[in-house]
């Protein structure tokens, strides 16, 4: 996460932000206190080991948010969440980070994971930094993953580079017709871009961000 030079969110502040590679651990409390804007809360899963890692959801304190940590994928960090945007509207989803490494069986494992949640909700979103170049149509890992998720009704929404190298490493897949990809913006404190998207249902408009750390 960013240091005291700024918060992890940039104006205009969103309703929620989904972060990967936070690098947080038990000693990160002072930095987290600086990075989280007033009126916001954080739910986090700290890095387990190795390079990179750590995921978190930063959200307005007025939102009702429930999270659940999951150890199903040993090669990745998972956090399931439910965000109640109003008394009758809920956005369900999963935030995933996978460090660079072997990709064997990853596509099937993620599809199996997503299948249990897409059946339970029409408004499901899968937010991921898997260190896979999804823009590469010649990569068997990329195409297999996209095909497996498409069979579950999960569409890839991000159609722009999300990394300084020009690759699409950060992904948003969703079954919902109420979620729209808006744009990406460059952040000064990370080589990943911030992905802006909206969840709009009923008559309420909720702005969210996923700025990877």
UniProtKB/TrEMBL annotation:
<dbReference type="InterPro" id="IPR036691">
    <property type="entry name" value="Endo/exonu/phosph_ase_sf"/>
</dbReference>
<protein>
    <recommendedName>
        <fullName>Endonuclease/exonuclease/phosphatase domain-containing protein</fullName>
    </recommendedName>
</protein>
């Amino acid at each position: 996460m960013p240091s005291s030079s700024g918060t992890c969110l940039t104006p205009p502040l969103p309703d929620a932000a989904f972060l990967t590679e936070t690098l947080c651990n038990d000693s990160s409390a002072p930095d987290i206190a600086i990075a989280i804007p007033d009126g916001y809360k954080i739910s986090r899963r700290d890095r387990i080991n190795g390079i990179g890692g750590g995921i978190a959801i930063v959200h307005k304190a007025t939102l009702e948010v429930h999270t659940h940590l999951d150890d199903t994928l040993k090669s990745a960090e998972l956090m399931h969440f439910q965000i109640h945007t109003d008394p009758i509207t809920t956005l369900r989803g999963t935030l995933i980070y996978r460090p660079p490494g072997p990709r064997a069986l990853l596509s099937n494992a993620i599809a199996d994971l997503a299948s249990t949640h897409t059946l339970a909700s029409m408004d499901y979103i899968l937010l991921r930094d898997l260190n896979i170049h999804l823009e590469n149509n010649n990569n068997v890992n990329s195409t297999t993953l996209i095909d497996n998720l498409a069979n579950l009704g999960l569409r890839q929404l991000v159609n722009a580079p999300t990394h300084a190298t020009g690759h699409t490493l950060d992904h948003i897949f969703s079954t919902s017709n109420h979620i729209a990809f808006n744009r990406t913006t460059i952040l000064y404190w990370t080589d990943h871009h911030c992905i802006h998207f909206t969840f709009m249902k009923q008559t309420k408009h909720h702005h969210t961000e996923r700025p990877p750390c």
